[in-house]
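User: Hi! I'm a student and our assignment asks us to look at how structure tokens line up with a sequence. Could you show me two examples?

Assistant: Happy to help. In each example below, the sequence comes first and the structure tokens follow. Example one:
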Amino acid sequence: NFCFTVKNVPKNQFLATRQVSSKMGPNGDVVVVKGKYVWETYQQVYQEVSDFARGIAVMGFPKGCGVGIYAKNRKEYVVAELASYALGGYNTAIYDTFGPEAAGYVI
């Protein structure tokens, strides 16, 4: 599990992000520019998860509560998911591709 891995290999790479932007090409077309991946270790992500969990706990997140996470696939989704697990909760993915109408149905 996540905490076991943090304890045993805290400096190993865990999650990577990269900047993606677009610019106008020479022919007026849109060119996607993808930057290098920037990795975070298990320990760094663990700290983000702990901070997020403390924040939602202060807001009144009760043990066993469900969380609907509406997001694209990105690092922050994983942080929110792990924070809800850390507080004894569970989560449901509400992907942006579902559209806003589906959010009400899933929740």
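Example two works the same way, sequence first and then tokens:
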Amino acid sequence: EFVKLRCKPNDDRVINMKMRVAMIEDHSLLCTGIKNALAHKSDIQLVGEAATATDGLILLQETQPDVAIVDVGLPDFTGIELIQRFRASKHNRAETKFLILTGYID
């Protein structure tokens, strides 16, 4: 869905912008599937991807996405810790929303 911004308070004019999405996922097959699904959405822009929490933190700080898709089980530290570090960082200027992914093999 497009991100809608008002030009000024009480102004009916709206600017439509693409939703900016970052993906932090270490499983390449899942990453490919999500990228393919997002590629078919004209109102979504994938701004970057990372396979580790360390690289993901840098990605979030540099791109300030609207939404971040984050795997819980990343190789260096958890996705939950990544989100906590990002929210606590001085680089957190965006109101990024997080979609948490996890998998379980029985």
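Here is something you could point out in your write-up. The mean pLDDT is 87.
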